[in-house]
Structures are given as structure tokens and as C-alpha cells.
């Protein structure tokens, strides 16, 4: 099984500490480009560009990274409903052309009614997934056919065409979510089912569920994990770095995150919230402390290179072969992970000449 490692673009700020009222490093263009170039040189094959209220626009950031890198694949997160699917398909195919076929798309329906409302989107949870289904049907048809007519619950297209056509025959789609609606959409339209770093038993159960659903549609998928890593030469140094990372949390920031967790309608987020107790440790070298002040991916694998490798291999044994990793600050940690961890998985690491 080929294993793919990607990094993360911190488009809401970065630094050595999390949970501050203001990030130590602002997400300006030069800094984000440096992160992408460092990740490329370190041997990562992809880099996730997030979407949401606290982040910079993912299309613009993804375009900038494409034009300042040579090999790494931006995984551009987008939300159905904010831009028409026909225009989203055109934007994706344009970047696909500009990048010579090295972009992926991550569909994110959103998990916070408050955050979605900040952008004027007040559609309830189940209806958001119905809209995502319509959205993906339109995008796929435009990517696969010269002209389309489409009549759905949320979108109608008459004599739709796509200019320019894709460089790739079909741009890969990453999709996540723990609800039945999310799993069914992934099974029908996704290429990679993406989860957060939950306990291995939950990850394995969801993989088996989505795999069965995909088989019912005559499809096969690959599976991914979005998780942080804190890797150091010794176990003591690694856990010391983990505690340092959360040592400056502002009480107001943590209180605000607790309010977010109480009002979320995301099943996956509720499951992650269940890990926030005790010393936040679980499984093999796993830690949920980042989730105190970070929504979504709030867990990390912590330890020596060999220990972190073992922690990730737990997921590999369950069927995962895509890892989207990150660490704080993302610039220095991309280089560290590239030096200490990635060579343990691949002897001949593809490195870019920058």
C-alpha cells in the first residue's frame, strides 16, 4: 500500500504556542509560501489549505502555493453553497491546468451553525449534506462530460459547459464526516474518506462502514487521517514540547472554544470532544490536548520518531494510507518531521530542488 504524507497551511496564524488571543506569526503570503516550499523540500507530497471563517480564502492561497512550488499538491478545501458548483468546477479545472494536474479538492460542509451563519449560511445539518450531494453531482458531470443539463433540489443547470477542461481526468475529492449522510456522500462521490485522529477502534469502524457503502455503489476508496505530530529525539523531549505548546492558553480563548463545542452539530466534532478529559492521552502515543483550543483536528501523536511511526502505523493497519500532518510552528516542524519521521516510512524520499 502506497502511503502519502501531506502537510498543512496555517492560514489563521502560526507560532510555538496555541490558544493565544493573537498568533505569534501572521499568515502573510511570504510565510505561507515558505511553509509550502519547506514541506516540498522535506518530502511531503501534498499540503492542505483549510476553509472557514478564521482562515484566509483557500482558492487564493492554493493558487499562490501552486505558482511558488514545483511538485507538492495543494489540497484545497471548499464549502458547497458559497459558490455555484459550475463556477467551482471551473476554478478547480483552471488551477488544475495551471498546476499541470497537481491539485486535489477537500469538500467541507461545515460543523458550526454560528460560523456558517457568519457567512450567511443558515441551512440545517441534513440539508447541507443534501446540497453537497447536488454540488458534487454537478461538478462530476462537468468534469466528465462536454455539456450537461441538471435538475436537482438545490441546483439547476441548463446546457452547462466547462472551459477549460481538466488536466486530470477527474480531480480527486476528499470528503469527511461521521454522520450517515457524510459517509453515504463519500461512498458515492469521494476518492479519499478523511477522518480526524480518533481512537483506532472508531477509525477502523468508520472505514469498514464507508468501505461497505462504497461497494454497494460499485466503488472503492482510499482513507486518510488528519492529525498533528510532535516528534523529538527522546520521549521526554516530545512530551515536554507538547506541554509547552499549550502552556500559554488564554482562558478567554479556551472558554470561547468550549462554547463552540457545545453548539456544534458535527458528529465528528462531538466525538473529538469526548477525548477532552484527564491528561488527554489515549491509544498508542496519542494526545488530545490540542483540542482544548483547536476545533476539528485536535489530536497528535507524540514521541520519538519510532514511537510516532508506531502510532501512525496503527491507522495504516486499519486501512489508512493518506496522512495530513502538522506541527507548531509549521515552518520548523515541516523540516523536523521530514528529517526524523518520513524517512522511516520511505527509504528514497522524493525531494524537490528549491
UniProtKB/TrEMBL annotation:
CDD domains: Alkanesulfonate_monoxygenase. It comes from the Bacteria. The keyword Oxidoreductase applies. Residues 5-322 form the Luciferase-like domain. GO terms for molecular function: alkanesulfonate monooxygenase activity. Pfam families: Bac_luciferase (PF00296). This is LLM class flavin-dependent oxidoreductase. It comes from Paenibacillus hemerocallicola.
Amino acid at each position: 500500500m502506497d502511503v502519502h504524507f501531506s502537510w498543512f497551511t496555517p492560514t489563521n496564524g502560526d507560532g510555538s504556542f496555541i490558544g493565544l488571543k493573537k498568533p505569534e506569526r501572521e499568515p502573510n503570503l511570504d510565510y505561507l509560501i515558505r511553509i509550502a516550499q519547506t514541506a516540498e523540500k522535506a518530502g511531503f507530497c501534498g499540503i492542505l489549505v483549510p476553509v472557514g471563517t478564521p482562515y484566509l480564502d483557500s482558492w487564493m492561497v492554493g493558487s499562490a502555493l501552486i505558482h511558488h512550488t514545483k511538485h507538492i499538491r495543494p489540497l484545497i478545501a471548499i464549502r458547497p453553497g458559497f459558490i455555484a458548483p459550475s463556477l467551482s468546477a471551473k476554478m478547480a479545472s483552471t488551477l488544475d491546468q495551471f498546476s499541470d494536474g497537481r491539485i486535489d479538492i477537500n469538500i467541507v460542509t461545515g460543523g458550526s451553525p454560528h460560523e456558517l451563519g457568519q457567512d450567511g449560511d443558515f441551512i440545517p445539518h441534513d440539508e447541507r449534506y443534501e446540497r453537497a450531494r447536488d454540488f458534487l453531482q454537478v461538478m462530476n458531470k462537468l468534469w466528465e462530460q462536454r455539456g450537461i443539463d441538471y435538475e436537482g433540489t438545490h441546483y439547476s443547470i441548463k446546457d452547462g459547459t466547462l472551459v477549460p477542461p481538466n488536466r486530470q481526468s477527474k480531480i480527486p475529492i476528499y470528503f469527511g464526516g461521521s454522520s450517515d449522510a457524510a459517509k453515504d456522500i463519500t461512498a458515492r462521490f469521494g476518492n479519499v474518506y478523511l477522518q480526524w485522529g480518533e481512537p483506532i477502534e472508531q477509525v477502523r469502524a468508520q472505514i469498514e462502514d464507508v468501505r461497505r457503502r462504497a461497494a454497494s455503489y460499485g466503488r472503492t476508496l482510499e482513507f486518510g487521517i488528519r492529525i498533528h505530530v510532535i516528534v523529538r529525539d527522546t520521549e521526554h523531549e516530545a512530551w515536554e514540547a507538547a506541554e509547552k505548546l499549550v502552556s500559554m492558553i488564554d482562558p478567554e480563548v479556551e472558554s470561547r472554544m468550549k462554547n463552540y463545542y457545545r453548539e456544534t452539530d458535527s458528529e465528528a466534532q462531538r466525538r473529538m470532544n469526548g477525548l477532552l478529559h484527564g491528561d488527554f492521552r489515549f491509544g498508542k502515543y496519542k494526545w488530545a490536548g490540542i483540542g482544548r483550543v483547536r476545533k476539528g483536528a485536535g489530536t497528535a501523536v507524540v514521541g520519538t520518531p519510532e514511537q510516532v511511526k508506531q502510532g501512525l502505523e496503527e491507522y495504516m493497519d486499519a486501512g489508512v494510507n493518506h496522512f495530513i500532518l502538522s506541527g507548531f510552528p509549521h515552518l520548523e516542524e515541516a523540516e523536523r518531521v521530514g528529517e526524523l519521521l518520513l524517512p522511516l516510512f520511505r527509504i528514497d524520499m522524493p525531494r524537490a530542488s528549491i
